[in-house]
Amino acid sequence: MSELINNRQERIEVMKNLISQLHEGRDEEQVRRQLESVLQEADYSDVFLMEIQLMEEGISRESITKLCDVHTNVLRKHLDLTETPETVPGHPLHTFLQENQALLQRTAQIRQLISELSSADSESVASIIDKIQTLFNDLMDVDKHYRRKENLLFPYFEKNNMPGPSTVMWTKHDEVRDYLKAIIEALHQVSELNQAEALAFCKLAIEPAVEALEEMIYKEEKILFPTAMDLLTEQDWYEIYQQSPEIGFCLYVPEFEWIPEGGIAQSPGKIKANEDKIHLPTGMFSLEQLINVFKTLPVDLTFLDAEDTVRYFSPGKERIFDRSRAILGRKVQYCHPPKSVHIVNQIIKDFKEGKQDKARFWINLGGRFIHIAYYAVRNDAGDYLGTLEVTQDLTELRKLEGERRLLTYDEN
Amino acid sequence: MQQLEINKFTKLEEIFKTYPQTEETLKSLSPLYKNLETPILRRTVTKIATLEKVASVSSLDVYDVVNVLRQSVGQPPLETEQ
């Protein structure tokens, strides 16, 4: 019968009719089989067009969003044949795909931990849940992946009269975000659960959340990204490339500079080192000087803004705690191990409420004496602007005695 | 309140909100579902899990679960023939 359905609109009509039956509660398996018998192949863009037309015909956005996973499932056999586009390192699409790989590594680890939970004794339950929570903190980074799609990629679909992705996918993003937040919040308390309850929680809440995140990756790689590759020009991608660092990356940082084919049409928006001076109330730097002053400081700095988002860290030569650019744009609450996040929250709360301006810790780390201090950053009016973390290895300084008044270089 | 058609894609939260009596019916189907009495589980699971997922973690057939709940709110059973 498929040879009869060679017209695109006819093909979409058949899909719409079958998908509409799902709305009426018909069994997914039956619809899937019927669809497979009717269609030899479904083009990924057909899915978008179908969604748009269903919306135009009065099926609510909510209903379509709700059935989005179902109709992707029904079409999966055909979509599986769609190749995920390949691009060069640095290209925004390459970055999206690398991020997906990093996310899938985490979801695989979570599934493994859930399987270990089935036979865990009561002592191991808390430790497994702790590990799952750390992995969920990582998954929260998907927010930056989604925000780059929503704010940088979707506008090109809308410009081309393809509102499907932004209306349906955006809602699915919010659903995944809600799931992740709800789970992280719950995981703080799950350690109080017994093994059976913890397992029920994993099976009924964590697995569906992980599935929702993986399902979005599938939709991106089989539907959204192939369509985007057809739709966007190299210059469009370059615009996305330039604006991406402002939002930040998800568990992966592109290391390669990317120049679009045909060169750069517009001058880069980035500040050029050496040309622009940064004027401060007590002096000025070139950007190059400022970058290297921060690099030379004998302390490690990390700054988070008033919304608790990590905005900067100094690129010290031997940082005490490793920092990756992937944390930029991440909420600080997802940067700390589950056991210490409540302390971070307490400090920030006290800073925001103006109760405290400083919190200090010192720890022994592999034989080194590490001083960690948090400072509230405020403007002249006392408004809270963020928190500065200053970490310093005091091991050598603590050993100093007497005086050194003559020039003597330390051994490196 | 708008009629909510119960099927395997419906989330527990929607079902319990629309038909509060279904919560006890569901718990009676499997000891596993009794875990929903734990507040933290209930709060998170009902928000995320669909009936399909709920059935998959027990030994119950999804249509048995769907149709028991449908029956309890006066909805006709869904056909299950393959």
Descriptive report:
- The complex is a heterodimer of chains A (412) and B (82).
- Chain A is of the alpha+beta class.
- Chain A folds into 3 domains: 2-79; 92-247, Four Helix Bundle (Hemerythrin (Met), subunit A) (Up-down Bundle), CATH 1.20.120; 277-399, Beta-Lactamase.
- Chain A is 55% helix and 11% strand.
- Chain A has helices at 8-23, 28-38, 44-56, 61-74, 76-79, 92-117, 122-139, 142-159, 164-190, 195-231, 234-247, 287-296, 341-352, 395-399; strands spanning 277-280, 283-286, 300-305, 310-313, 358-365, 368-378, 384-393.
- The longest helix of chain A is centred in the middle third of the chain and has 37 residues, at 195-231.
- The N and C termini of chain A lie far apart (78 Å).
- Residues 1-5 and 267-274 of chain A have low confidence and may be disordered.
- The radius of gyration of chain B is 12 Å and the shape is globular.
- Chain B has one domain (12-72).
- The interface between A and B is medium-sized, with 27 and 23 residues.
Topology (elements, then pairings):
The complex is a heterodimer of chains A (412) and B (82).
Chain A: H1 8-23, H2 28-38, H3 44-56, H4 61-74, H5 76-79, H6 92-117, H7 122-139, H8 142-159, H9 164-190, H10 195-231, H11 234-247, E1 277-280, E2 283-286, H12 287-296, E3 300-305, E4 310-313, H13 341-352, E5 358-365, E6 368-378, E7 384-393, H14 395-399
Antiparallel strand pairs in A: 1-2, 3-4, 3-7, 5-6, 6-7
Chain B: H1 12-18, H2 22-27, H3 39-48, H4 51-56, H5 62-72
